[in-house]
Amino acid sequence: MSFDLQSFVFLLSVALILLTPGPTNTLLALAGLGLGVRRALPLLAFELAGYFISISLWGILLAPVQLHYPWIATLVRIASSAYLAYTAVMVWRDARLLQTPQQKTITPGVLFVATLLNPKGLLFALVIFPAHTFEAMHSYALAMLSFACLLVPIGACWIGLGHALNHKRLSFISPRKIQQLSSVALGMFSAFIAWAAFR
């Protein structure tokens, strides 16, 4: 019974964190806005790869080291903040190209790196995933499979949300304004991560 309760808490926690707005979800919504659902869905593979590597590195390699060198987590947060600030500037700059032949889109590389540096990966590895996850291959595989089964539909929802903002009924909100607001959101995430790193 305790295992069932622990599994339920784990799955619920993962779902809630994946649903929470953040840099990766903002980029997925932008991809849905610029590419449409069908063309944006393959980006979920790059989101999964980013989280997979991030969670695995933190859980298997860096968590034990961080106990002796806590500055490693701070360094990751600073890198994440810097990359998101850069991405925010690029997203704002490219907003003027929307619906033109020069339109820029969210690339797999941008989404992968943003997810790899997303502080949620640190949270998943050190807080949300059960303590025994990284001690045995069976536990690790089961946890990552459960994580992937939640990530794909939730990521698809964020893509769908971005695509829905292109609907005619929402024509009073221009895609350019939406992308600029997304840029501001990414900038705010960058500032928050930087603040968390130094406080």
Describe the structure.
The protein has 199 residues and is mainly alpha-helical. It has one domain (24-198). It is 78% helix and 0% strand. The chain has helices at 2-19, 23-35, 37-40, 43-68, 71-94, 108-116, 119-128, 137-164, 175-198. It is globular. The protein starts with a helix and ends with a helix.
Strand content: under 5%
Fraction of helical residues: over 70%
Query: Assembly state here?
Result: single chain
Radius of gyration: 18 Å
Main pleated-sheet profile: none
Number of helices: 9
Integer average pLDDT: 83
For the termini, the CA-CA separation is: 40 Å
| Global structural class | mainly alpha
Give the overall shape: globular
| Low confidence ranges | none
Overall strand count: 0
Helix/strand order: HHHHHHHHH
Number of domains as seen in the coordinates: 1
What's the layout of helices and strands?
Blueprint: H1 2-19, H2 23-35, H3 37-40, H4 43-68, H5 71-94, H6 108-116, H7 119-128, H8 137-164, H9 175-198
Helix pairs in contact: 1-8, 2-8, 2-9, 4-6, 4-7, 4-8, 5-9
